[in-house]
Amino acid sequence: MTFDRLDLVSKLYQPTGWPRILEAASGGPSSGPLVVDLDPTTFCDLACPECISGKLLNQGRFTPERLAELAGELVEMKVRAVVLIGGGEPLAHRGTRTVLRVLGEAGIAIGVVTNGTLIRQNLAELAAYASWVRVSVDAGTSDTYRLFRPDRKGRSVFDKVIGNMRLLAEAKQGALGYSFLVMTRQEPDGSVVGNHHEVLRAAELAHDIGCDYFETKAMFDDGHHVIQVPAGILASVEEQLTEAQKWTGDHFEIVNSSTLTSLRTRVGPVQEKDYHRCRVAELRTLVTPSGVYVCSYHRGNAGARIGDAVTDSLADIWRTSDRGIVDPSRDCRFHCARHRSNLELDKIRSGAAAGTVAVPEARSEEDPFI
Predict the structure, then answer these.
(1) pLDDT band at residue 1, thresholds of 50, 70 and 90?
(2) Mean pLDDT, residues 319-330
(3) Percent of the chain with pLDDT strictly greater than 90
(4) What is the pLDDT of residues 35-83, one digit of tens each?
(5) Does domain 32-327 match CATH 3.20.20.70?
(6) Strand, helix or coil at 10?
(7) Is pTM beyond 0.85 here?
(8) Kind and range of the H or E element at 178?
């Protein structure tokens, strides 16, 4: 069985992670996370005007030695998957190649979220060890790329990124994704620029490159609330995605993100939650140079910081920290991709208490990115 990469609820029912799923469902502390988001650095070589992490950039990085130690600690903690991500560009750290190798050789699944500019320098490790690489492109042409993803001198490196993606497509063992964030911006003169008109062109390019999927997403504001778009823009995106279905097949798919679903359903910026503890916080965590946080939605939030991985081991941080410091009903009123997972964990708890939950049966394939 192959899992839908975005069906996070079904991924809870996998035998390998089941003991810790039950720990998290119980409402108590787990013995360790199943998935870790790791920011190797806060540096980025691009200067995207709409960057949601703009205020967190260029505020430090792990030394290569400490980053290598962290990789070893993740192996010792029996983490099942690591996502190299960041407020910065994860491939910009020269120690990331070592992390890829250490984790990959230990059998830990690896995801990488990147702007694609440094794929060539990390090609061998990405091709050999990454379960998936998702490249944030957000455009279908060089001119539009320059508007929304300029480098520090205001130039477009679109051709470089696409060329790097082609190299990886030829060498990869895992999946390669082309990510498209639907964006609009009001310029000082009052005019509005956007990239939505290039969804179809970008999807065709993703297929031509040899990507495994094309994903369209919505913008967030600084509070991680989904930013709605005018009806005309949404209709245009929908029409283009419908046409792009002609390229789907055994090796290429159009992925519907949870944020795009939020746009379609016009649910508004707030997602109410009536529970006070995030059980998923016992299964996932975020490790950055500025601290360890309950989750990626709270990157840089001092109120959600549970430790310092620069000075302390991850095992010590996990053993002594309180992941319940974030109250979802109060602190997570944005649309959380793991809200439904939290609701499902509550059902698992109830079933376990009643003796009606059985250990999941082994499947031919598993996807640990819960």
Answers:
(1) very low
(2) 97
(3) 79
(4) 999 999 999 999 999 888 878 888 889 999 999 999 999 999 999 999 9
(5) yes
(6) helix
(7) yes
(8) strand 175-182
Amino acid at 314: L
Please state, in angstroms and rounded to a whole number, the distance separating the CA atoms of residues 307 and 354.
36
Cα Rg for the chain, rounded, in angstroms? 20
pLDDT tens digits, one per residue of 8-39: 999 999 999 999 999 999 988 999 999 999 99
Query: What is the phi/psi pair of residue 129, to 5°?
Result: -120, -20
Is residue 159 within 8 Å of residue 140, measured between CB atoms? no
DSSP for 234-302, written as a single string = HHHHHHHHHHHGGG-BTTBEEEE-HHHHHHHHT--S------SS-GGGGTEEEEETTEEES-GGGTT-G
How far CA 251 is from CA of 117, 254, 269, in Å, comes to 24, 11, 34
Neighbours of 156 (CB within 10 A): 19
In this structure, the number of other CB atoms found within 10 A of the CB of residue 250 comes to 5
Q: Which of 114, 68, 118 is nearest to 88 (CA)?
A: 114
Residue 356 and residue 24: Cα distance in Å, rounded? 17
Residue extents of the structural domains in the chain:
32-327
Task: Give the HSE-up count for residue 34: Cα atoms under 13 Å, Cβ half-sphere.
Answer: 22
Ramachandran category for residue 290: left, alpha or beta (phi over 0 → left; psi -120 to 50 → alpha)? alpha
Q: Which residue has the higher pLDDT, 129 or 265?
A: 129
